Model the fold of this input.
Amino acid sequence: MPLQIDGLVKRFGTGADAREVVRGIDLHLVPGECFALLGPNGAGKTTTLRCALGLTGASGGSIRLCGEPVPERAREARARVGVVPQLDSLDPDFTCAENLLIFAGYFGIPERDIRPRVPELLAFAGLEGKENARIQSLSGGMKRRLTLARALVNKPDLLILDEPTTGLDPQARHLIWERLRRLTAEGTTILLTTHFMDEAERLANRLAILDGGRILTQGSPREVIAEHIEPQVVEVFGEWNGGGTGAAAWAAEHAASLSKRCEISGETAFCYTDDAAPLLAHLAHQPGLRTLHRPANLEDVFLKLTGRELRD
Amino acid sequence: MPSIFAPPRLSSRLLAVWRRNFLVWKKLALPSIVGNLADPVIYMLGLGYGLGMLVPEVEGVSYIAFLAGGTLCYSTMNAATFEALYSGFSRMHVQKTWEAIMNAPVALDDIVAAELVWAASKATLAGTAILGVIAAFGFAASPLALAAIPVVFLTGLCFAALGLIMTALAPSYDFFMYYFTLFITPMTMLSGVFFPQSQLPDAVLGVANQLPLAHAVALVRPLLLGQMPQQIGFHLAVLALITVLAFWLALALTRRRLLN
Done:
């Protein structure tokens, strides 16, 4: 099994100042799957990854990474894992090719073995011909792709990516997604964290939603949506002529009878229902209100489970 | 996780980390050597010949011959200290180089040990170049002067280890100014680099004798003058002991900073 985490607990500080950031997480990854950890900022995603890699000690629970107990044999386990960290950590003193060669050295891979693979790794990252380019000359998307190539120097069984597409433009995100799909098709197991729901919905075979250091739900994207939320969503916003000022006033009067559940966020009412037809028929006669009718998605589940308040 | 004060667990992968730093240095080797060389050589020649006119002899030799050994030691100290502080902090904090390396099968212990040995290596490269200049001016005529090179390496290790403590504690580059003004500069004045320690008041001498730079000077100066130093074992042991203790503390503080 690529990664097996049972009852993981992580506390920072001691005594009265102790903060429990991870509060009993179980994760069992199946070989060849792509598993996404979703959660708002501070949910415990990165801490879980750091514990899994043996970069920080767990306060409780057990971890096996690529079959090795962590932290006892974390070094041996990491030899079979590739990591794309959240922040850029490419070596600015080296060219693209040198970054790959030097990094392979940390795995004890001799230069004669890695040098022939450099063009192939750069091509995989869409960086053909950039062997001698300096890191400072690369765009954000190119740096992230080079970091992905760097994570593959040891042909890992498990690839861990911490927010791989944060800060990238849509073209760069799609290229990363396409490459990750290619890797899973070739049998690499992937564990990624993200707060982009569409990313998780597109890539993940299974996912877990974390908040406050706990897993709130896990399963395939479809299972999670079906389990937690009504299939149809109608977003209502704009001016209402029936008294009051906007969608909130409208919702207070009508939402309960026309939808199973309704949430107000700012100026918008989110109405969840199994059958949107009666609601849409009603709304057709409310000229000031505007509507958006769509199927429920992972973001609706996420917001239902983790709330709509800002997290910083 | 074991205690932060657990003894280091090292692997041969530290060589890969050392090599990474060496390869960066190699790209800029010439400017780096010249940078490390120019300042001490200018001081040595300027003070040595300028002040030497007024001070005909110090401890039985010309002032510039006296100054040569001190110059080699304090420039070694500076090279090791700068590398462990500024370059080490860049790699640890700014560039996240250590973080990237730790995702590979390399432990933090390996990285900190590699930084220690690398800073000492760089100081030795610079020190050897300075020794070359000193020899070219005729102030290291005896073959004994070659024995100064391993002492320079040990001095580099000692100051790299002390510097890594500061790096582990530093919130930003500005922090290092305290280390220079409160520790490095006074030590340079008290360790017999520019004038014999015998000129110091007795109350100060007791402390000054304990300083790591003073032990380095006590070894290097006689070697350059072609004499066997006195109490070789004692001076070497003190430098080695400070290195071990400082490295142990630096490692503990770095573990606390990065692994918690």
